[in-house]
Amino acid sequence: MNQSLSPNFSDKALTISSSDKDSEHKIGLVLAGGGAKGAYEAGALSYLAEINFAPHMIAGTSIGALNGAVIASYPDFSVAVEQLNILWDKLGSEKVLHLNPEGIKKVAYNAAKTFVPAFQSWFFDLISEIAIDGDKVSLFNPDTVEKLLKEAVKPSAIRSGKELWVAVFPALKIPGIDYDHLLGMLQFLAGSSAKWLRVQDCKDDELLYNLLLASAAIPFAFPPREIKGKYFVDGALGDNVPLGALSKEGCTHAIVIHLGNAVTWNRYDFPEQAIIEIRPTQSLNKNQALIAGDITSMLDFSSERISQLKQLGYQDAKYCLEPILRSFTSLSELRSEDDLLKKKTEELQKDPPVW
Fold it and tell me: For strand 27-31 and strand 253-257, is the pairing parallel, antiparallel, or unpaired?
């Protein structure tokens, strides 16, 4: 099947010219966060490419921000999706997560320092000096992720590409207090909200990469990132489905790809947008333990798991969108038949009467 998904999600003709799309509609693509489960989005996007879907603007959180950065970097949506799948194949063949032994000690130390205030502070300071490298504040070394991101996303390409918004969550980083992750979590519990930032506004290359990595900086797992003097972590803490970023930019229609079925987002908060949601038909977690199942699935970048998720994403996108495409096709055929009938009727009315 190689049909075109009408960007207005209505019963209009299946193909709309680029000038028509630009003048009438702003089509958005929203990619949720979920760590390694983001391979599901690569599979779903493969089906979207097959039916000639192409967005005007993109918003993503966490791994959705990284996936979105690749998609936004190429003018041709099919080429972008192909490059994204190549990146995920690399993620499966390389060891993405490298534990920081010092980071493990650092997180444990910060937890103790946060939750046991003023208890023998001299002892904590001593342990910090003799046993912990202060620069290693995360469980995993981010070097591999950074390297693959820089290979896949070129700043010049993304600045001239599709508009991309990412969600990030503010993390406190106070001079002299280095337990920013825990303070960030306390902010989350206190109800702080995510920030939406446009990647194309980053004129400095390193700032651009930092913004993308900030959106995917899972607390404790990866270090926070500095953006213009402020520190941010994973945007999923505040907004895992950032359609709001596109809504304020005039997005009229959107496809949202979820990585879970938990009720964390309500499409009826966006009454002005026509929305199609692609959701997993089965849990993307490797096991159903409430928290452990989600965490282990978010961190499983094995080649086998990535392949499974990509296949499931493709199947679910097809399952969701094929009925819509069939409806478009049926309506188009009915309109063609109706137009033909009207034309024949007009021709008959012009014929002279037969006596």
Answer: parallel
pLDDT tens-digit series, residues 217-227: 988 788 889 99
> Which residues neighbour 259 within 8 Å (Cβ) at sequence distance 6 or greater?
32, 33, 34, 37, 38, 40, 41, 64, 280, 284
Q: What parts of the chain have a pLDDT lower than 70? A: 1-23, 100-137, 172-192, 262-263, 288-293, 328-355
Rounded Cα distance, 319 and 136, in Å: 44
* Residue 296 φ/ψ region, left for φ over 0, alpha for ψ in the -120 to 50 degree band, beta for the rest: alpha
Q: How many CB atoms lie within 10 A of CB 161?
A: 21
Secondary structure (H, E, C), 251-298: CCEEEEECCCCCCCCCHHHCCCCEEEEECCCCCCCCCCCCCHHHHHHH
Mean pLDDT value across the chain = 79
Contact by Cβ (8 Å): 241, 30 = yes
Write down the pLDDT at residue 13: 27
